[in-house]
Specification:
Chain lengths: 294, 462
C-alpha cells in the first residue's frame, strides 16, 4: 500500500497526488514513469513521474481523468492509499544520461501540451539544477486548464500560449516555436511532450526548422517491464517496446498516425465500462437497440 | 473390475459447457478412484517412472500409500521431493516425463501418476496440512528475485533452513507464470496457486511485490546497502517474440503474454475488473506450444472461433498431449503445416486477415524434428480479426544489464552451474527459465531446490 501524502486539483481537469514510495523515490530519474493500481479490480495505469523528493521518499504524479480508473483516482484524498505503485519504469531522459559536457552546450526548448506539462517539469528542473538554461513553451486550450505556471517559471524561460487567447500568446505551441525561431532564437534540441496529436505537429514543425526532437510516447501498456508487447511503437523501421526502450524516442522517426490508432484500440470496450461506471450497470444488452454487449 | 490396461478415467467438465466458462476443466479423482488407480501400480523395485521425474519423487512409495488409503503418508513422501505437487500434478508434461517411463505403459496405459499426485496434494490442502515449521532463524538474509516456481521453491527451502528470506516480485501478485500465464481453467488461482504462495509465506518468507530489480533497486544495492548475503535470480523468461512479418503492429495483433496477462492476472474475463480485453469473433493463434493452446482456449471461452496456425504437423506440437486433446474437444480448429507470411490490415489499421503458406516436412534439423519447408505458390488468406502471436519467450535483460559481473550466454540466459545455481558473480545464484530459457514448472522448481542447497553451502562456508 502506498500512502497519498498530498492531493491537489491543479486546474479544471488536472489533478496532482504526492505519494509515499521510498524505493521509487530513491532511484527515479526525469523521463521515467510509474504504474499505479487503485484497488483489487483496478487497471494498471502508467503515469509519468512529475517530481520526486528522495529525502521524503515521495513521488509526484499529475493526471487527467480519461476513463474509469483515472476518474476513480480523482476521489483519492490525502491519507488514502494506492494498492500498487511500481517503478521507476522506462529509461531516463537522455538529457540526464548523456555526457553532461555535451548536454551543457545545448540550447533546449521544451514544448509542453496540456497535462504533458507535468513530465516536462522534472527535466527542466534537472537542467536548471545543473546550471543549464532552457526555454519552455506551455500550450493549453484555455487559461483555466493551464497548469504549473509558477513552478515552471522558476526553472526556465516560460512562454505561455492558449488556443483561445485567454492567456499569453494566442495560438498553439508550435506557432510559438516558429515565432521564437523567426525572432532569432536558436535551438539544438526540442523536447515535446503532450497529447499524441500535439507531438505529431510539433515534430512536423521541428523537422521543417531542422531541430532534433525527442517525444515521450504513451501507448497502451499492461506490465511496463517488457513482458507483454502491448506498448509496441514503430520507430523508423524498427518495432520498439515503449516501456523498456522508451518512453522517449526520436520524434522524427515515429509513425504517429499508427500510434494514435493503436492508442484507440480499446475505445469501445473502455467506453462501455465508463458508461457503466457513471450510470450504474443499466447497459446490460438485450434491449435490441444497441446491439447488446458486442 | 475395470480394464487393468487402462487408466481409471478422470472426470472432466463437458466440452460444450466448459467452452463457455473459466472453471477448471479436469475435476480430478475422488478417494475411491484414486485408490483404484493406485492399484494399477506394480510398485516396481527399479522404478522407471522416477527416472522420468526431474525431481525424483519416490513414486512407488507414494502410490503405495495411496493404495492403502494413507494419504497423509503419500503427501509426506511427495513433500520430500516437491514443494508444489498440486501444481505439478496439473501441469507437468507427464507423458514425456514420469508416465512416459512407466512399465505399465509398455502394454497398456501408464499409471496416472500426475492425477494421483494432484489428488494427494488437493487432499492435503483440504485437510489443512501445512509444510513443516521453519527452523530457528540463523540471522542470514537472502533475496529471491521473482515469485514463479523457481523463486517460491528456493525461498521455501531456504526458510526451512533458517534463513531470513525476502522475495521481490515485479508484478502486483506473486506466482509468476502460474498467475499471469497459465489460465484459471487449467490451474485455479485462488484454489491452488494462492495456497501454495501462502504456504511459503507461512514459513516466514516475506514477499515484496511491485519491486523491479534492476529498476527500483539493483542486485548490487541489495547486497551492499540492504544487507543481503546472497541473491537468487528466478526472473523467468518473459520477453515475447514476434515474427517480424508485415502487419504485425496492426491493431488486433497481440502477444500471447498480453492476451493471457489481461485475462489471467488482470481478470478481464470478469466484469468486476476494469481491465479490458479485445476478443474478436475469429482469432488466429500462431504457434503450437502450451502457451498457444492456453491463448486459443481462452479466446474460445471469450466467444471466438479459434484457429491454431502451426508450421509443422500434429506430431511435432510441443504442447502437452492432454492440452491438445482438450483444445480439439472444445472445438479449436488446427491449421497445421501452415505458416503466416503477412497480417492483412483494413483502412483503420485493424487486422482483417492473415496470409499463410502451406508447408511440408523435409529433412530433420538440429532439434531432430523434421524441418518445415514452404510449398511454392501455396499462398492463401484466412479471414480473422485478431491474431495472437505465441512464438516463445526469452529472458528479460533488465537484471543482466544492471548487475556487474553477471555472465549471460548468447540467448540472453544467465549462466549458472546446474548443481548449485552459482553464477559468475559471488553470492548470486540463478535458476529456472532465466537460466534455461522457457521450459517447465517442474524444472524451474528443481533448479530452485538445487540453488537453495547451493546457497546454503556457500553461506555455511562464509
Ligand atoms: C508512459 C506513459 C506515461 C503517461 N503519463 C501520463 C501522465 O503523466 N498523466 C496523465 O494524465 N496520463 C498519462 N498517461 C496516460 C494514462 O496512462 C491514460 O490516460 C490512462 O491509462 C487511462 O486510463 P483509464 O482507465 O482512466 O482510461 P481507459 O478507460 O483505460 O481509457 C480511456 C480511453 O483512453 C484511451 N487510452 C488508454 N490508455 C491510453 C494511453 N496510455 N494513452 C492514451 N490514451 C489511452 C483508451 O483507448 C480509451 O479510449 C501516460 C501513459 C503512458 C503509457
Ligand atoms: C501460458 C503458459 C503456459 C505454460 N504451461 C506449462 C505447462 O502446462 N506445464 C509446464 O510444466 N510448464 C508450462 N509453462 C512454462 C512454465 O510456466 C515456466 O517454465 C515456469 O513458470 C518457469 O518458472 P520460473 O520460476 O523460472 O519463472 P516465472 O514463472 O516466469 O516467474 C518469474 C517471475 O519473476 C518476476 N520477475 C521478472 N523479472 C523481474 C525483476 N527484474 N524483478 C522482480 N521480479 C521479476 C516475474 O514477474 C515473474 O513473476 C507455461 C508457460 C506459459 C507462459
Ligand atoms: S512432479 Fe511431474 S514428473 Fe514428477 S512425478 Fe509429479 S507429475 Fe510426474
Ligand atoms: S513404473 Fe509405473 S508401475 Fe512401476 S512403480 Fe512407476 S508408476 Fe508404478
Ligand atoms: S507494457 Fe508490456 S511490454 Fe511494454
Amino acid at each position: 500500500m502506498f500512502k497519498i501524502v498530498k492531493a491537489e486539483q491543479l486546474s479544471a481537469n488536472v489533478y496532482k497526488k504526492v505519494v509515499l514510495a521510498p524505493r521509487v523515490a530513491a532511484s527515479c530519474q526525469p523521463g521515467q514513469f510509474i504504474i499505479v493500481r487503485l484497488d483489487e479490480t483496478g487497471e494498471r495505469i502508467p503515469l509519468t513521474i512529475c517530481d520526486y523528493d528522495r529525502e521524503a521518499g515521495t513521488v509526484t504524479i499529475v493526471f487527467q481523468p480519461i476513463g474509469v480508473s483515472t476518474s476513480k483516482m480523482v476521489d483519492l484524498k490525502e491519507g488514502d492509499y494506492f494498492l500498487d505503485f511500481v517503478g521507476p519504469l522506462g529509461r531516463p531522459s537522455e538529457l540526464v544520461t548523456d555526457d553532461f559536457e555535451e548536454v551543457k552546450k545545448k540550447k533546449v526548448i521544451f514544448i509542453a501540451g496540456g497535462v504533458g506539462t507535468a513530465p516536462v517539469y522534472p527535466q527542466a528542473k534537472w537542467l536548471h539544477d545543473h546550471g543549464v538554461e532552457c526555454d519552455i513553451i506551455i500550450g493549453a486550450r484555455s487559461k483555466d486548464i493551464l497548469i504549473m505556471e509558477e513552478e515552471m517559471s522558476k526553472v526556465g524561460n516560460l512562454y505561455l500560449c492558449t488556443d483561445d487567447g485567454s492567456y499569453g500568446f494566442k495560438g498553439v505551441g508550435t506557432a510559438m516555436l516558429e515565432k521564437l525561431v523567426s525572432e532569432g532564437h536558436h535551438y539544438d534540441l526540442c523536447v515535446a511532450i503532450g497529447p499524441m496529436i500535439m507531438m505529431k505537429f510539433a515534430c512536423l514543425t521541428t523537422k521543417k526548422l531542422g531541430i532534433p526532437t525527442i517525444v515521450s510516447m504513451n501507448p497502451i501498456m499492461v506490465d511496463g517491464t517488457g513482458m507483454c508487447g502491448a506498448c509496441r511503437v514503430v520507430v523508423g523501421d524498427e518495432v520498439k517496446f515503449a516501456c523498456v526502450d522508451g518512453p522517449e524516442f526520436d520524434g522524427h522517426k515515429i509513425d504517429f498516425d499508427q500510434a494514435m490508432k493503436r492508442a484507440a484500440m480499446y475505445k469501445t470496450e473502455e467506453g462501455r465500462r465508463m458508461l457503466a461506471y457513471k450510470e450504474g450497470k443499466t447497459h446490460h444488452g438485450g434491449c435490441g437497440n444497441c446491439g447488446g454487449d458486442k | 473390475m475395470a480394464d487393468v490396461l487402462k487408466k481409471v478415467p478422470v472426470r472432466e467438465q463437458d466440452p460444450k459447457v466448459r467452452a463457455t466458462n473459466f472453471d477448471e476443466v479436469c475435476l480430478g479423482y475422488n478417494k475411491d478412484e484414486a485408490v483404484e488407480e493406485a492399484q494399477r501400480c506394480l510398485g516396481c523395485k527399479k522404478a522407471k517412472c522416477m527416472e522420468g521425474c526431474p525431481v525424483q519423487i519416490h513414486i512407488p512409495d507414494f502410490i503405495g500409500a495411496v493404495k492403502e488409503g494413507d494419504f497423509a503418508k503419500a503427501y509426506s513422501v511427495i513433500s520430500e521431493s516437491s514443494a508444489l505437487p498440486a501444481i505439478c500434478g496439473r501441469v507437468c508434461p507427464q507423458e514425456s516425463q514420469c508416465e512416459g517411463r512407466c512399465i505399465r505403459g509398455i502394454k497398456g496405459e501408464a499409471v496416472s501418476i500426475g492425477k494421483l499426485e494432484r489428488f494427494v496434494a488437493d487432499w492435503a490442502r483440504e485437510q489443512g496440512i501445512k509444510p513443516a515449521a521453519p527452523a530457528e532463524k540463523n540471522g542470514k538474509k537472502v533475496a529471491v528475485i521473482g515469485s514463479g516456481p523457481a523463486g517460491l521453491t528456493c525461498a521455501g527451502d531456504l526458510a526451512k533452513l533458517g534463513y531470513d528470506v525476502t522475495i521481490f516480485e515485479a508484478l502486483h501478485k506473486a506466482g509468476g507464470v502460474l498467475v499471469y500465464g497459465i489460465p484459471e481453467f487449467r490451474l485455479p488461482k485462488d484454489g491452488v496457486v494462492l495456497p501454495e504462495v501462502e504456504n511459503v509465506k507461512s514459513l516466514g518468507v516475506k514477499i515484496e511485490t511491485d519491486v523491479i530489480i534492476g529498476k527500483s533497486v539493483t542486485i548490487d544495492e541489495l547486497m551492499e546497502n540492504e544487507g543481503f548475503d546472497a541473491v537468487f535470480i528466478g526472473s523467468g523468461a518473459g520477453l515475447p517474440k514476434f515474427m517480424g512479418i508485415p502487419g504485425e503492429t496492426a491493431c488486433g495483433v497481440f502477444s500471447a503474454n498480453e492476451f493471457l496477462t489481461r485475462n489471467n492476472l488482470m481478470k478481464a474475463f470478469d466484469e468486476k475488473y476494469d481491465t479490458p480485453i479485445f476478443h474478436g469473433k475469429k482469432v488466429a493463434v500462431v504457434g503450437g506450444g502450451n502457451v498457444a493452446m492456453d491463448a486459443a482456449r481462452t479466446a474460445l471461452r471469450l466467444g471466438a472461433e479459434v484457429h491454431i496456425i502451426y508450421r509443422r504437423s500434429e506430431e511435432e506440437l510441443p504442447a502437452r498431449k492432454e492440452e491438445v486433446h482438450h483444445a480439439k474437444e472444445e472445438g479449436i480448429i488446427f491449421d497445421l503445416l501452415t505458416n503466416p507470411v503477412e497480417i492483412l490490415e483494413d483502412e483503420n489499421d485493424w487486422v482483417k486477415g492473415i496470409r499463410c503458406v502451406r508447408m511440408e516436412l523435409g529433412e530433420p534439423d538440429a532439434s531432430g524434428r523434421r524441418r518445415p519447408v514452404e510449398v511454392e505458390g501455396s499462398e492463401f488468406d484466412i479471414d480473422v480479426d485478431t491474431v495472437i502471436m505465441s512464438l516463445g519467450t526469452s529472458p528479460n535483460p533488465l537484471i543482466s544489464s544492471t548487475t556487474k559481473g553477471l555472465e549471460i550466454n548468447k540467448r540472453k540466459c544467465i549462466v549458472a552451474a546446474e548443481d548449485t545455481g552459482a553464477t559468475s558473480k559471488a553470492g548470486v545464484f540463478a535458476g529456472g527459465d532465466a537460466v534455461t530459457g522457457a521450459a517447465t514448472v517442474i524444472l524451474a522448481m528443481g533448479a530452485g531446490k538445487e540453488a537453495a542447497k547451493g546457497i546454503h553451502e556457500y553461506l555455511s562456508q562464509k
